[in-house]
Amino acid sequence: MNNIGLKSEYTEEVSGKLNAYLSSLQISYMNVRGFHWNIVGKQFFVLHAKFEEIYNQLNEMADEVAERILILGGKPLHSFSEYLKISEINEQTNVSSAEDTVKYLLQDTKKLLAIEREILSFSSEHGDEGTVSMLSGYIEEQEKMIWMLNAALK
C-alpha cells in the first residue's frame, strides 16, 4: 500500500495512464495556444478570447493531473519530447481559419474525453475516488465543450 492506502501496483499503472493523459493535455494546450495566436477572419475576436479561456483551462487541468500523479507516488513527465512520444493528440501547426481551428479542437477534445473515460473506469475499479472525482469534473466539461464546438460548426 502507498501513503494514501492504494495498492502500489495500481498506483504505478494509473500514474502511467495519467502521464499519457498529461502528455495529451499539454499538446492540446499548445495547439490551442497556437490557434489563439494565429486565428484570422471574421470570428477573430470571439475565437481569440475563447481560445485563451480554453488554454487556461487546459493548463489548470495539466497542473491538477501532475499533482495527482505526485499524490499517487509517481513522477509527472515534464518535457515536450516525452509528451510527443506518448500523446494521443498530434501537434497542429499553421492553422488559422475559424473552421479549421474549431475542427481540430473538437477532434482533440473528443480524444481527451475518451482518455478520461478510460482512466475513470480503471480508477473506479480500484477504489481510487480521488482520481475518479477529478476526471468526473473533466468529463462534464469536455462533453459541454464538444456540444458547443459542434454547434459552432453548423
From TrEMBL:
Residues 17-153 form the Ferritin/DPS domain. Gene3D superfamilies: 1.20.1260.10. Belongs to the Dps family. Pfam families: Ferritin. GO terms for molecular function: ferric iron binding; oxidoreductase activity, acting on metal ions. Signal peptide: none annotated. This is Ferritin/DPS domain-containing protein. CDD domains: DPS (cd01043). PROSITE patterns: DPS_1.
